[in-house]
Amino acid sequence: MTTPSSPVNRLRPRRSCLAVPGSNPRFLEKAQGLAADQVFLDLEDACAPLAKPEARHTIVKFLNEGDWTGKTRVVRVNDWTTHWTYRDVVTVVEGAGQNLDCIMLPKVQNAEQIVALDLLLAQIEKTMGFEVGKIGIEAQIENAQGLVNVNAIAQASQRVETIIFGPADFMASINMKSLVVGEQPPGYPADAYHHILMSILMAARANNLQAIDGPYLQIRNQEGYRAVARRAAALGFDGKWVLHPDQVAAANEIFSPSQEDFDHAELILDAYDYYTSEAGGKKGSAMLGDEMIDEASRKMALVISGKGRAAGMKRTSTFELPDSEKKAEA
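^ thats the sequence. predicted structure below, dont judge the formating
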């Protein structure tokens, strides 16, 4: 298990994770100007088998020469059951490792597959003189075996940053009776994905990782995308894949707090800091308007505040002492 010599931000903003075929220079060029938090250049499903060797070099070129300012830069390689994986990793990391944030590994089935990628990355980093451990790993869960082992996968390496749900392959792997990726199968009255999403979320949160929802393939169905994204956001997921530029704004909006919630969270933090201080009376709980706040309130506010700050939000209100407190201080 490798550890970087300097701290790495493993909790980067990932509200919108844009998939871009690594074999398509036009799309790679366009992606740089979109407002996605993360862009992953794909060598797997979005890249035809015959195009993969050349796509590796295309990705290296765009990582080194493109302007990805403000974006988390990720490459999705092929999974370990294929003969492409090692060459994907070696070519991309040797060629553009200093301009790469993470490698995404699809179809992860056990912790050993994460350990293998960690070891390969460390060997390349040492050989190339890169900082060892700086490149993160994103683990994509796409079948029943991966979900059963998701906790071990989350703990397999300090490089792991995210656990991602891959709905299409997962649905196929469990014989789910639906051809619409992300939609509920006919005949089941509840949410067929709840257990899957919660298992991924618990493994992520237990290990201080991010949980990311996968793609919604009906790219012209904006309402469908929003509905599925809202479900993941309501559970606590950090972001969702986007397959088309039109989905970026929706993901950024849905996985950001509202301005009202962000302002309220900031007020709770300020108020709690004051009331627990010497000047505020060293109180364990206090009233903020009609609301009682305490340590649990602070923890909940930190989550909302953190998401808002990561999204670049600015507060529009300030904490002010109630009149009774002002008179007491005077």
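The radius of gyration is 22 Å.
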